[in-house]
Amino acid sequence: MSVFAAMVAALGIIRLVFFGLAVVAAGIFLLDWLVRTRRISPFSPIARFSRSFVDPLIAPVERSVVRAGGLPTSAPFWALIAVVVGGLVILYLLEFLITQLAMLGAAASSGPSGILKLLLFWTFAILRIALLVRVVSSWLRVSPYSRWVRWAFHLTEPILRPLRGVVPPLGMIDVTPLVAYFVLWLLERVVFSLIA
User: Fold this and answer.
1) 19-68, pLDDT tens digit by residue?
2) What is the pTM (predicted TM-score) of this model?
3) CB-based contacts of 23: which residues, under 8 Å, 6+ apart?
4) CA distance 12 to 15
5) Residues near 29 by beta carbon (within 8 Å), at least 6 away in sequence
6) Could you tell me which of 72, 94, 83, 119 has the C-alpha nearest to residue 13?
7) Which of 33, 59, 176, 191 has the fewest CB atoms nearer than 10 Å to its CB?
8) For 135-168, what is each residue's pLDDT tens digit?
């Protein structure tokens, strides 16, 4: 059994574990919601369990929900969403890592030209991701100086600055990231056709 096949099998097991954890979390958060909405007596053993063990876990989510104007009773559902989304992100990152390791193994077996192609592929992929992060952060009004998106601004500004002088905005919409994405795609095709 190869290392790649073992990693894929392990990823399948991790998926099942995450699914099981999500089901358990859904059950626990449902019970907590039932206690919070008084559908289960606040003096029952389930309510005591919920107040002792579940509420401290949900407290950060509850504070965020209340700050955003929501009701504390909706905190279990938001906590469940956070658990599910967090699990999906972790699974995606693991799958991405396994795919990249498989690509690295294939590139290494192809020699220096394979490694060069892989490095070029990764470079273009990182630039495309940086453009996407920059666009999404502008929609969410995240500061470009935030530590989460600053890297994307540093990588994409040398590409976007010259394009802004050439491409006019469409009203209040800056289309240079879209143009830059297309230019990167075109440049990637040209580079790979030259080294193929």
Assistant:
1) 999 999 999 999 999 998 989 888 889 888 888 998 898 899 899 889 98
2) 0.70
3) none
4) 5
5) 54, 58, 76, 77, 79, 80
6) 94
7) 59
8) 988 888 888 888 889 999 999 999 999 998 888 8
Q: What's the one-letter identity of residue 69?
A: G
Q: What is the CA radius of gyration of the chain?
A: 24
Pull the structure tokens for residue 157. 């500004």
Write down the H helix ranges in the chain: 3-36, 45-49, 55-67, 75-109, 112-139, 150-166, 176-195
- CB-based contact 65:75 (threshold 8 Å): yes
| Contact yes or no for 28/54 (Cβ under 8 A) | yes
Task: Answer for the pair 11, 94: CB distance below 8 angstroms, yes or no.
Answer: yes
Distance, in Å, from the CA atom of 138 to the CA atom of 132, rounded to the nearest integer, reads 10
Reply yes or no on whether the pLDDT at 128 is more than 80.
yes
Contacts of 36 (CB under 8 A, 6+ apart): 72, 73, 75, 76
Sequence length of the chain is 196
pLDDT of residue 1: 56
Decide if pLDDT at 92 tops 90. yes
